[in-house]
Amino acid sequence: MxxxxxxxKAEYALLKDEIEPAILAALAACQYIGGPNVKAFExxxxxxxxxxxxxxxxxxxxxxxxxxxxxxxxxxxxVITTPFTFVATASTVVMCGATPVFVDIDPRTFNLDIAQLxxxxxxxxxxxxxxxxxxxxxxxxxxxxLCVKHNLKLIEDAAQSFGANYGGRMSGAYGDIGCTSFxxxxxxxxxxxxxxxxxxxxxxxAELRVLASHGSRxxxxxxxxxxxxxxxxxxxxxxRIKLKRLNDFNTRRIAIAETYNRLLGDVVETxxxxxxxxxxxxxxxxxxxxxxxxxxxxxxxxxxxxxxxPVPLHQQEMFAATHGHVRLPVTERTAxxxxxxxxxxxxxxxxxxxxxxxxARAVRxxx
Length: 367
Ligand SMILES: *Cc1c(COP(=O)(O)O)cnc(C)c1O
Known about the structure:
The protein is an alpha/beta fold and 367 residues long. The chain contains 12 helices and 14 strands.
């Protein structure tokens, strides 16, 4: 690939003089579990997010699972979420013994269609899990109002939106609990797996910590079923260094998206930013009836691209028995027409122009 989806090599070249000595120092310090960098990262990430508590864990998936457990989600409960997301948003609901209820998306933002949410609430509903898909904040104020009215917990899946903001709060800090992921492709990424849970609530924070460490409040005393879910010291070292760059990197992503918008506005449906929050473009996702032709042309030109997501969650085989009958037309149509283009803070202006010209040529010859 001459242009990758995300240029981790260029990012590493930029940061290696800072990262390598810090890693070596952590190796020599030998505090591999619960070390000083993990504690410092939790405090720095919580401060960045404007949240009172930050609890690091092993992945974004674990962050969601632990958040749902701390919110009391259990057998027989329903949790409303989006079908247009990564599987972990809903698989973690099933891991709690509960049932995900999928509501269709808004065709422009790809986020939950707020107008359809209230009709999906039943006496069994216990939580809403909005996903800020591709980095664009969900319009959370009406969701919060529904949560207050129906006594639901609001758990934000901010895996793709760390550093975005909405309503004066950073992404993840608006709801009762926010979850994020440091998987290597995310806006703030580790060199392996990692996750973070944030909350302002002291009681929830204590429960989240207990659940992430084997359900133990006092060592070797276990009062609930918990998990072994930790961020390791080396990932914390890397994340502390990269957290300092996150705002700059997100600003660059926004600038790249604006350039793509200018170059592609007449060619395809460019991403719609609703302007209600700061969209941090985890992905730059276009819509086109010529999606497959564009994908083919980019691949031939050595330019990476990806379909996020080819199969909506209600149509996944794992949900066939429970959700096989569900029809969500906007999500299904979006899955057929969407394509994510390379977006990386390291992308050069020449590369952006090259991607755009291949897309434009493909559409012209397909039309
Ligand atoms: C990446 C992602 C997750 C899962 O995070 P991991 O760290 O890979 O476990 C959950 N939800 C969404 C929306 C994601 O993009």
